[in-house]
Amino acid sequence: MRQHIVKLGILVFTIFLNILSWNSQTFSDWYIANIMPVWINTYSRFISIFPFSVGEKLIILAFLLIIVGIVIFFLGFLKQDKLKLIRKRYWNIISWIVVCVLLIQTLNCFILYHASTFESQYMESTKEYGFEELLNLRENIVKKLNFLSDQFERDSKGEIIYDKDWNAMYAECIKSMQKLGERYLNLSGYYPKPKRIYFSKFMSQQYLLGIFFPFTLEANYNTEMYITNMPYTICHELAHLKGYIYEDEANFIAFMACTESDDLFFQYCGYLNVLNYVANDFRSNASEDEWNARTMVKENVANDNIFLTADAWEEVNQTSLFKTETVETVANKLLDSNLKINGIKDGIKSYSRVVRLLINYNKGISK
């Protein structure tokens, strides 16, 4: 009976926090500024001790528990009283897991959706922007990319050779994020080491570059993706860790972290990872003459603007249990639904809202 009361108390507290955050932006802002740093400096520091993604292991454990539950449900050879006891203990464990996960997800994720946006905190809002601003933004990005694309050593296939180890990349990502923290207070402080996803091939089928696990406060990334995605993706996931849960804002923060880095490769990755958002917006608004008059990206830029290399895709598709098209469709629907449940009305399309933020920042690009 006491366990049931405790579980009910946790559930009621979780519901209360969700209602409060949905109805009070002030509370959500206060929580991110004052309570989130406590979890990051304690819980996240502890989780970072482990060299693997704890969140990924917990997901695997969850699937195993589901399988165990199915087996227990169909058990018929045990005595009825013994079977009843096993089922009771199993459901007790499951109920504890559910209420704890809901609480942790609320604390580390759901509340964050109802806080002030990065734009409202630090920028002059530009809800609408003109074509001229969009044209200038695209031209500036393309010129930067065309210049930077010639600065790197490449192999016989034309792929960039990254001559630093992974720890150096992690360190530069964290350094770049902390540098932003000097201007934007919520981005300051401790960052955990990014974690690799072991099942990155399956992750690739979902077209996921990275993932933030709220229940472990980890920034995880796909090891199969092409090298030009990695610094940007890691910074994107680290931005989520600091309370910026909206995808367009995490994209923008990652862009700033990369392009303001002293590392030319990071700068290249920053510009490259926003190119498609800007180019698609430009294409939708440009006349045929304006489109044809645009500055063309160099061949190296076009070749680097990929998710996976052809060889990586071949390996993914050869070793996968499911068709990539099926996995991608299911993953997109789940992601879109999750965003909409948390108040993001345009779901996956919210990623592209980064263009508005980039236009506000365009003076920095023009320097």
Notes on the structure:
- With 367 residues, the protein is mostly helical.
- 65% of the residues lie in helices and 3% in strands.
- A 3-stranded mixed β-sheet has the order 1-3-2.
- Strand 2 (210-213) and strand 3 (218-221) form a beta hairpin.
Topology readout:
Blueprint lengths: L1 H22 L1 H10 L1 H12 L6 H21 L5 H29 L9 H5 L8 H18 L17 H15 L14 E2 L3 H6 L4 E4 L4 E4 L8 H12 L5 H13 L4 H22 L2 H5 L6 H6 L5 H10 L4 H18 L12 H13 L1
Parallel strand pairs: 1-3
Antiparallel strand pairs: 2-3
N-to-C CA distance? 66 Å
The rough form would be described as globular
Percent of sequence in beta strands: under 5%
Helix tally equals: 17
What's the Cα radius of gyration?
23 Å
Query: Could you give the order of strands across the largest sheet?
Result: 1-3-2
Integer average pLDDT: 87
- What's the number of structural domains? 2
Largest sheet: 3 strands, mixed
SSE string, helices as H and strands as E? HHHHHHHHEHEEHHHHHHHH
Helix content: 55-70%
Number of strands: 3
Class per helix and strand makeup: mainly alpha
Low-confidence stretches: 345-352
